[in-house]
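Fig. S4 source data, part A: sequence.
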Amino acid sequence: MLSISIQNLITSVSYRNPRQTKTELLNVMKHYRSLHAKVEYFSFNDGVRKKLIVLKGTIPIKYKGSYYNIPLSFWLLDTHPANAPICYVNPTNSMSIKVSRNVDSSGKIYLPYLHEWNQNRSDLLSLIQICIITFSESSPVYAKSPFSGGEGSQPVDPVFSSLLEQQHPSSSNSTIPTLHLLNSVRSAVQDKLNVALREEFEIKGCELQSLRKMRDELNSGKVSIETAITESKRNTDALEKNVEDLEGKLKELEEANEKLEGEKEKDLDEALVGTAPLYNQLFHTFAKEASIDDAIYYLGEGLRRGVIDCDSFLKNVRKLSRQQFELRSLMIKCREKAGLRV
């Protein structure tokens, strides 16, 4: 029945994420039966009024050794859980709001959990548990003094307040046996103790759940940090190895540079020396034959451009051709002597 009722409320307001909203409401009302969901109009600061689901009722807190029920309301925006709920303290006629960093004069609640609301990590049940923990440290309301408008010395509605007054017999019932009266008081005290113990158990359970969630988040962060440290160490080792290799290469280059600077400039002809006289003869013969090719080429260019006449061209070409023939013949003999392919 509760599930159907919540579903009807959500349908009437048209929430963007009805499934998660329904799940969170059912979860809260399962743990805190003093909270009830209904649809009411909420007035925003700009004057706009909108139908929203509001969770109203009381939450149990333990303040300075006594138990109190604090009246609160949690307004769920139609974008829930993308946006944080709007929360208020709803004091009764006998209460006044105690302004603090968590509650303003209108009763609106301000918490880091609301400011840092994240739809993937935040939920309504955790918000209520944080309210219990926060208001157990600093009560958001105080009892009005019956004699003045000033602040009372104690928060409202202690569990054990006026217990004996409720159970004390009036003058018209003075005939009730003393033993009967004593048993009645004992029974009432026992009931109050049972309620107090149950509420204490719920509060501790909420605190434990919040601590477990915090522990899981810390463990997850620890794994991420360890992974980052390992990756950083691996990168550092690789960089150190690269630096070491580069320093070695730089040292080799410096040594080679010093060696080159210490050597005298060599003549190219002296540097090109064969391993045997035959190879030297073959090398020089080939160089001369190649130079004759170049000379014949440039003679042709001179003739084409009119620098030399035809007779001079033919005379020099015949002379160079004879020399080239002799050089080629000598190269063939040298290659045969050296056992090279002709």
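Fig. S4 source data, part B ends here. DSSP finds nine helices and six strands in the chain.
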